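Quick sanity check, Substrate-binding domain-containing protein:
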Amino acid sequence: MYCSPLRAGVAATALACLGLIASAAAPAAAQQPAVVGYSVSTLANPFFQGMTKGVVTGIKAHPGLTLINTSANGDANTQATQVLDLINQHVAALILNPINANAIVPVVRRANKAHIPVFTLDRGAACGKCQVNFLETDNVALGKEGADFIAGRLKARYGTIKGNVVDLEGLLGTTAGDDRERGFATEFAKLSSANPGLKLVARQAADFDADKGFNITTQLLAAHNDIDAIFNGNDDNAIGAVRAIRQANRFVPIGDPKHIVVIGIDGTEQGLSAIRKGQMDATLSQNPLTMAAQTVNYIEQYLHGDKAGIPAHQFWPHVLLTKDNLDTPEVKQYGLWGDQVAAQ
């Protein structure tokens, strides 16, 4: 079953994807649990905290699986060393969330030679079929939809699509960061070509980091007194931007002609809180809890020999969140993972 993000029915799609494999998985036959090695790029990012929780919970749902859980703390060399150690421990499968799509390739190849299946989650490895499954959100679509959201808000403000926009890029070199930027940049170029009054006044990488987002936005606000909107590669970037806007005394409520539109990506608890307070306009939410659970389901399926039904590449559904739809039944069914993780 191939799953893609839809503007309507995203929750039903996610639940169908998740339930399909879970219902089909056979009980583990081995007396000893199969060991799954997991390497997450960092736990400093709330999204990856949620994803790790999803992996841990997913493993617990399968009595035939057990987990070795590692974090690379944002260092590609550390991640390579950790993954090599997992390979040397002869784990039954690997779940990798690479720091860098190219840097992870040599150790993925080592896993391939050791006949250890590799499943990449949220971020992929730049070696194609070296991965049994690469499960992610359609990051190009996230970037495109971010540009479209900003265009819609500016049209509502001015009656036409115009204004000065800042692009706070994510962590380039990751599949998520690169693809989101490509989606945003391509769509923004089309919009600005058709609407000459729409300008990109700055593009800088904030690396999915709130402090960098704050520092860059602070500098840009000092240099530009007429910024209309900021696209952010993730919610951490956005939270940093919101903090800078408030500290510079440039915050005005949504709907005010001088309001700076801020949109992020992920659906973190901080992002949801900022949206509820009216400080942030929107986020394009992923759901790392259900994404991670699906990857674990695929591992269970693979280890029981049912390999044909596992897609090599899969897009998990996402949803646009604003203050207006946070409490709708569809959004609640999709899952506000940021709230769920914060409450536990």
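Posting the structure with no commentary besides this: The radius of gyration is 20 Å.
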